[in-house]
Design brief:
The protein is an all-alpha fold. It contains 12 helices and no strands. Helix 4 packs parallel to helix 7 and helix 4 runs antiparallel to helix 8.
């Protein structure tokens, strides 16, 4: 048997390089992702820096505010990922076709995605909240009943985003799977996680208030800094969440219908 030539081959290397280049060129989500993370990080930390430069004593007024913000933000991130990843696992296994030749209905599939998302979120966030008590002597559970309102609203927003991401993946194939990790961070700078919405430029504030997350984090700061539960923020968050969840549900059902008509459920791939 002839052994392969161990000498380095530029021809083979460049063949593989152009293979990856053609794969990148044919997938707009991959190109978008390359510029996405540096841009989001720059915008988010720029806003945090600008706010703290003029409000250096802010963190002293409510110890633990950043830990609470991080934990609540993770509820939104985990719940969105819980829907998107469960959907992706069916696509990676090329199992959607088999699922939908059974009596399973799309809305039953969606309900199961939401249920497993809740479980994955609790498994992800509760240990971190308990560890914060041990390491930093801060308990997010001291927020009391408002914590339940914040948790449910962020969970539902994560569900809504997850359903929309699943619809995009169903439409564009696995080339769009990176949306599962990057879409939710697009709203991070507008959500006011680490700073009040008032710290945003005036022209950005209406866009921020169109997001339920902004009302949740404003409500969290009201509880921690002023000791009051803002019913107006809660009402806005609930109303907007109903709108977003309804839109996500409808969009994913429409994507399922289109995929069935085009026969995509059996051919999902790049």
């Amino acid at each position: 048997m002839e052994l392969p030539n161990p000498a380095f081959s530029w021809r083979r290397t460049m063949a593989l390089f152009f293979r990856y280049l053609y794969l990148l060129r044919g997938s707009w989500p991959r190109i978008l992702e390359l510029a996405y993370w540096p841009t989001v990080q720059m915008v988010l930390w720029g806003l945090i820096t600008r706010f703290l430069l003029t409000n250096s004593s802010w963190l002293l007024e409510a110890s633990g505010v950043l830990i609470a913000a991080v934990l609540l933000w993770d509820v939104l991130f985990r719940s969105q990922l819980g829907v998107s990843l469960s959907f992706l696992e069916e696509m990676w296994l090329r199992n959607l076709g088999q699922l939908f030749v059974s009596p399973l209905r799309p809305w039953e599939f969606i309900a199961a995605l939401l249920g497993i998302s809740l479980l994955r979120t609790l498994i992800g966030v509760v240990p971190a909240a308990l560890l914060a008590i041990l390491l930093y002597h801060y308990s997010i559970f001291e927020l009391g009943l408002p914590l339940l309102a914040f948790f449910v609203n962020l969970l539902v927003l994560g569900w809504a985003i997850g359903l929309m991401v699943a619809a995009a993946i169903l439409r564009y194939g696995l080339g769009a799977e990176s949306l599962a990790w990057l879409v939710v961070f697009a709203i991070a700078p507008l959500s006011g996680i680490y700073y009040p919405i008032a710290a945003l430029p005036d022209w950005l504030q209406p866009a921020a208030y169109a997001l339920p997350a902004a009302h949740v984090f404003e409500g969290m700061r009201a509880v921690m800094f002023e000791g009051v539960f803002r019913w107006d923020s809660f009402g806005w968050a609930v109303g907007l969440n109903l709108l977003y969840l309804g839109a996500g549900w409808v969009i994913l059902l429409a994507a399922f219908r289109a995929a069935r008509v085009r026969g995509l459920l059996l051919q999902i791939g790049e």
